[in-house]
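FIELD: query
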Amino acid sequence: YYQTTRLDLRMISSSLSELEEGLTTDVVAENIISDSEPAKYDEHLENNRNEIVQSSSCNCSSICSPLNLNLPPIFILNLDRAKDRWQKTLAEFKAAGFSESQINRIPAVDGRKLSNADLAANSTRLARFLQPRGVLGCYLSHRTFWQLTVDRGYPSALIFEDDIQLVKGFLSKLTSSLGHLCEEMRCGGGPVDVALLGALGRVHPQGKDSLGAVFFAEYMGGSRPLKKLTHNIYQPVRAAGTHGYLVTREGAQKLLRLCNKAVFHIDLDAWRHKSLKIVMFDPVLVYQTFDSTSLTDLPSSSTGTPPTNNHAVQAVKRPWSLLHYDSGSPLHCDGSDGVVSSFPRSLNWLTADPHTLQPFQHVMDEPLIQLGPRGPILTVGRHVKIVGALVVLASFLSAAGQKYLSRMLFGSAVSFVISVRSIIWLLLNWK
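FIELD: result
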């Protein structure tokens, strides 16, 4: 099924005396809903969409128009039970110069409240057994946003999670960046599906990524060549994170087709598809605070007070200042007991990324696999500990002359790494 849509792009002029130009491009997009697929989400997700607070001030005729400062509609994902996070995020935008009427809230999907019918309809069988409910809820929350963008016919829309920090001068920088994006598209750069306002992973604009980011890109796959498009727009190598991005209507249609069911972490699945044209702004416009976000599943030890704009430089030099060890941190989307990492905060300087401000602790606390809805959770940190312990023990046995046992343990470590990566591959690809 095909439908013809019209994408209206208006050129951003640096001079107020220039007339506004319109660009209309006919594009043919594949209809994402086939006869064999449900036309809409189940009743639970449909009710979530109906609860969205609509803004009357958004003019969605273009990505950004400098003459009247209209921006794409702005949405924030937030759980109903996380009212404090909604107020904090709303205050962040008000401080940046936005009015409350410009900010729209999308009730996030609460993973622990999903029924078996919800899960069966919107996630794969393997994911239901091997992924925390909060990871699946976060995945479906972003799908709700993509579906809303398509249903309402927005040319583009902005989405933020509720654990963000906007950079100083965010409003003017956002307007300018979107203007450059329009100009890049108008001048032959082609349509863009997703524009990241901030990200994690291997996303340094000059390729000066941390060792941890390089390892992440090699481990997860889905890398692209680093490509500079304009002075402040580029194609990142391997992005992660969904805390702030713009999606076009065509991009939302692609994402709904490519990510039709929840399988794994939404960012690791969505941003790996090379059929998506993904760009990122330089400098970063929004950072993740690595606070106790209500969209993930585990209470991380990297909880506490988000960094302020005035402390941005200090945060780069001392990333552990973003952390606060709190074994009583609140639960997130899952109803499980959660995990608090035992990695000491003093190790954060080892792999903390100065470009994304992602601390070591946050990486270690990321869940990879959960055996059953209430089973044990294998985090990145636990994975590292298990493999490290096997390798160290194998080395000691080798030094003691126990070659056979040493080879057995080393082989077990390699087999464990391959097994975990194989399970992740199956989660991502066995739909």
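FIELD: remark
The radius of gyration is 22 Å.
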